Amino acid sequence: MKKTLLILTRNPLSLLGLILVTIIVLAAVFADFITPFPEHVGAVVDFTNFNQPPHWPNIFGTDLVGRDLFTRVVYAYRVSLILAAVVLIIAVPIGVAIGLAAGYLGGWTEYVLMRITDIFLSIPPLVLAMSIMGLLEPTLTNGMIAVTAMWWPWYTRLVYSITRSEREEGYVLAAEVIGASKLHIMFREILPNCVPSIVTKMTLDFGFVILIASSLSFLGLGVQPPTPDLGSMVADGAKYLPDSWWLTVFPGLAILIAVFGFNLIGDALREILGGDQ
Amino acid sequence: MSAPTLKIENLKLGFKLWSGMVEVLHGISLHIGKGERVALVGESGSGKSVTARIVLGMLQEISTARISGSLNFEGIDLDKLKPRDRHHLRGTRMSMIFQDPTSSLNPVYPIFTQFREVLARANPAIGEAEARMKAIAALADVSINEPERVLDSYAFQLSGGMNQRVMIAMALANNPSLLLADEPGTALDVTVQAQTLKLMSDLVEQHGTSVLFISHNLGVVREFADRVYVIYKGRIVEQATTKQLFSDPQHPYTRALLSAVPRITGGGIPDIAEDTAGFLDPLIAHPGASEKERLA
Amino acid sequence: MSAILELNGVSKEFAVNGRRTKAVDNVSFAVEKGECLAIVGESGSGKSTIANMILGIYGTTAGTIAFAGEPLPERREKRHRRAIQLVQQNPLSSLNPRRTVGASLRLALDVHEIGPKAERAARIGALLQEVGLEPDYARRSPAALSGGQRQRVAIARALACESELVVLDEPTSALDVLVQARVLRLLAELKAKRGLTYVFITHDLSVVRNIADRVAVFERGRLIEIGTTEALFSSPTQDYTRRLISAVPVVSDEEAAMRQHIMGDQA
Ligand SMILES: Nc1ncnc2c1ncn2[C@@H]1O[C@H](COP(=O)(O)OP(=O)(O)OP(=O)(O)O)[C@@H](O)[C@H]1O
Ligand SMILES: Nc1ncnc2c1ncn2[C@@H]1O[C@H](COP(=O)(O)OP(=O)(O)OP(=O)(O)O)[C@@H](O)[C@H]1O
Ligand SMILES: [Mg+2]
Ligand SMILES: [Mg+2]
Q: Which residue has the higher pLDDT, A123 or C64?
């Protein structure tokens, strides 16, 4: 772990990714202290200073009801990061466990599990999430459920393909001959060999989950006001382009930077950890 | 004498591990002339495979490896080559038979896919049918009975010896000028082994291929090699022509090694004294076999 | 003496892309308790397949395998797993690259609950020493071991189960002759001390000559000759066996003379 971090700092691109992600995470965690107007997260109205271009102290400008845009972008990061983390924390173990079981156990288990996975994969992700969100109320929790539902199958596919090739390896045979349980072989022998690929994919996905969640709220299906959300900020601001450009540009840039940062790290990890995709 | 096909000078290798630096090669020098069969024998873990991997340029890709010394291939300093050119040598002008055939073959592709890739390295335009024909011929050369079935199989569906022969056939497919054979016969029965050795010898004679032959089987070395280097703990301890080495081993390590060979005439498994005194004695080069004399 | 392992009319067929191959064809033999039976033969003649069937990795297409008088079930029980162990042909992949040597050895001890938990670490050290490695190799990953060192770990793992029958599939082909001699002596010692029984698959007839009590010769999936080592080497009855012996690469002229003798004798 320490070694990986060290290598990341050596390459300029991955170092940039590391810096971007660190800034985003720190900003989200310490949002209460670094934003000038923390109270602007809620339903605050200030008609003395609304729809203003960037100026001091509103460095990103203000929105249509006079709230500080910088404050709202930073808080939106917090929401996005929590959402992405929760989605991955739920989706990855599910996807990994199914992939291991299908890949190692084979037979009917493999057939049934992989068909289910394929069904999920065949539905365009946004359509799947939208239909779930259409059925449920558009709250943050439901947003997470929707995104989770479309995310786990990718991990199943990944882990399944690795497991399929690993199960022919001598060390799996050796464990079987010793009499180790199937659970041991799946989780203690094969899983460690999947970890590099999983970690790499998770890093890449962190950015993508943020992007998808933003798309959902752009379509009005995500987080609801007054909670700040990058996707809905872009959507709302888009109506006032090009005059009030700051309303879209800063939240848009924020999404871009997050996705970019996580991708840079993910790409580097892929090389360092030797995970293949 | 023209430039040797391979000349290694003062090659050192260490690994930077978390526990500290591990020195593996302590400055070894060796050369292989054109069309020469040179054996590298010695302790397991003494650095034979890593030497071959360094020549191929594979160990250089490991971030923990620290390598110094010079490598010369057909008069070219390998370290001065662009990575792309160096990479292109692999599988075309120098090829390697890996020690562990089953895991050197990719488990997720059938043999043919991998064989075709090898052929395409030398001839990118090669077609499916031609590749198949060549592959079948190459497998038949290494006494594989059902080449068609083998090509459609995955590595795990073949026996150890079959995989090894597949590796050998792939390594020879592009008529390399240097063949690095890392224990090419371990999984073969002696009759097939004799046949593959003959195949390699033919290659040496027809194409002037040079062979670095790594083996634990001293009997095979005696029958195949022209010259032998003995390596112990990352140091070459003795070098001689095959005849000299087997009739008159000088270095204490070489002597111990030869006395440990089980004999077909019986007599039990030799009882080897744990005593390793003298194994680290300096290099003994038999007349006519030292670097300086040969290259002068 | 009683047979610890008995194969009776065992066959195995594989299908690759619809084509069927008979890897093992109607093979019967018995292994006595405490003996070392060597299996030699053509590459691809079904030796490893037989090993896999003895261990229950593959089922048989026909025939039965009995261990200590009882037929072995298709699904092996834990006691069978413990009683019969394997050392694989391939040292590189038989150890998990992402786990330490110690973890691989510990698995055997944990699964069969051998020794108190607190003593298992010490036991691992002792096992490594038994095969001539320092105890601190337990912390290494297989990638940092040479082929021969890995193979010794694999042997240590088979010993860890304290089994009665060990199937060794080319256990020393990756070792230098010095280490090989040591491992073979170790195997012989363990055989004497623990009463172990070996099925020893190898291509090295010089090793067979010096370690095996009896030898079975295979060609194309069939058992063509079986007999005591003495008898087989002094007067082989089958042409293939003779060809095998005469092709053994040797290191001295006397040996070459003996090879010649065998050929000459029968010619
Ligand atoms: N990636 C690595 N990291 C650390 N040590 C390594 C690495 N690769 C090899 N070594 C060490 O280098 C030494 C030489 O290894 P090498 O594989 O060349 O041995 P060898 O002579 O081919 O042995 P064998 O005959 O058993 O195959 C060994 O002691 C091994 O532990
Ligand atoms: N899982 C499998 N699927 C299909 N065919 C197989 C499988 N395992 C082995 N075979 C075939 O069975 C035959 C015997 O293979 P086996 O591995 O038993 O040979 P072997 O005697 O051990 O040879 P070697 O000395 O080369 O290791 C070969 O033709 C091989 O291709
Ligand atoms: Mg080696
Ligand atoms: Mg085999």
A: C64
Question: Distance, CA C21 to ligand 2 centroid (Å)?
Answer: 10
CATH number at residue C34: 3.40.50.300
Confidence at C263, pLDDT banded by 50, 70, 90: low
Q: Domain residues for B76?
A: 6-101+177-295
Residues C118 and C96 reside in one and the same domain: yes
The alpha carbon of C52 and the centre of ligand 1 are apart by a number of angstroms equal to 29
Write the CATH number for B283.
3.40.50.300
Question: What is the domain extent for residue C185?
Answer: 3-234
**ipTM metric:** 0.83
C181 to chain B, closest Cα gap in Å:
6
Whether the model pTM is above 0.90 = no
CA of residue C101 relative to chain centroid, distance: 21
Give the CATH number of the domain where residue A198 resides: 1.10.3720.10
Q: How far apart are CA B104 and CA B173, in angstroms?
A: 17
Domain count, chain B: 1
Q: Considering its fold, how many domains does chain C have in total?
A: 2
- For ligand 1, the distance from its centroid to the CA atom of residue C189, given in whole angstroms, is 28
Query: Which one, of C6, C166, C11, lies nearest residue C71 by Cα?
Result: C6
Helix, strand counts (H, E) of chain C: 10, 10
Selected residues 165-204 of chain C with any CB under 8 Å from a CB in chain B = 170, 173-182, 184-185, 188, 203-204
Query: Exposed e or buried b for every residue in A184-204, given b needs 16+ CB within 10 A?
Result: bbbebbbbebbebbbbbbbbb
pLDDT in tens, A163-179: 998 988 889 999 999 99
Residues C245 and C186 in one domain: no
Res B54: pLDDT: 93
Report chain C residues whose CB lies below 8 A from the CB of A180.
107, 111
Q: Angle between the C101-111 and A170-178 helix axes, to the nearest 10 degrees?
A: 30
Model confidence at B296, in pLDDT bands (50, 70, 90)?
Answer: very low
List of chain C residues whose C-beta atoms are within 8 Å of the C-beta of residue A176: 57
Whether A221 shows a pLDDT value over 80: the answer reads no
